[in-house]
Design a protein that fits this description.
This protein is mainly α. The chain contains 11 helices and no strands. The longest helix is centred in the N-terminal third of the chain and has 23 residues. It starts with a helix and ends with a helix. The C terminus is likely disordered.
């Protein structure tokens, strides 16, 4: 076993401890400590960078989180999670054009059968459109999302945006969604 294999093994071990600490024990401070160990050993360890970006997001350290997600993206990690987190960070910073651009990039990385990803992407994009007063576009996307999502996610989306439905009257027919339960 060469030295790089040992370093990668140790980085992965620290990452797993950090992941468990973050998601199950919910101790951000310890999770950051272990993810730092992993990144000290292997600064390009993708899973550790993603975890560190997620921790910063949870702590509302948007600029630090964006820096990590952009580093991943610029380093060639071009997947749904990276693009959608960049979009979310830009949204939080009020940089709506950049956020919309990365929403589009993340949409290219998701399959229609990945309902959890589709749901979060629709939510973010509708919020973005509403933030820039593109209400008609938001409503159009909302109606399209209701058709594309599974019944549970469509129902959740409808509840999240009930003000759209009430604002526009009976434009969106959601009776069929309610019957699914």
């Amino acid at each position: 076993m060469d030295i790089m294999s040992v370093i990668n093994f140790l980085a992965e071990k620290y990452y797993k401890i950090a992941y468990d600490t973050f998601f199950y024990i919910e101790d951000n401070k310890k999770a950051k400590k272990y993810v730092s160990y992993a990144l000290n050993l292997c600064p390009t360890h993708v899973k550790s960078l993603k975890l560190k970006g997620s921790i910063f997001l949870l702590e509302d350290k948007i600029d630090l989180s964006l820096e990590i997600w952009k580093k991943l993206y610029e380093g060639g990690v071009d997947d749904f999670e990276v693009a959608s987190k960049i979009a979310y960070c830009y949204f939080q910073r009020g940089e709506y054009k950049n956020a919309l651009d990365f929403c589009e990039k993340s949409a290219l990385k998701v399959n229609l059968d990945e309902s959890e990803k589709m749901y979060s992407l629709y939510r973010l994009k509708i919020d973005l459109l509403l933030s820039i007063n593109k209400v008609k576009s938001a409503l159009k996307l909302f109606k399209n999302a209701l058709k594309m999502l599974n019944s549970q996610d469509a129902y959740e989306l409808k509840n999240s945006y009930s003000y759209l439905n009430s604002h526009f009257g009976a434009v969106v027919d959601i009776k069929s969604i309610k019957r699914a339960f």
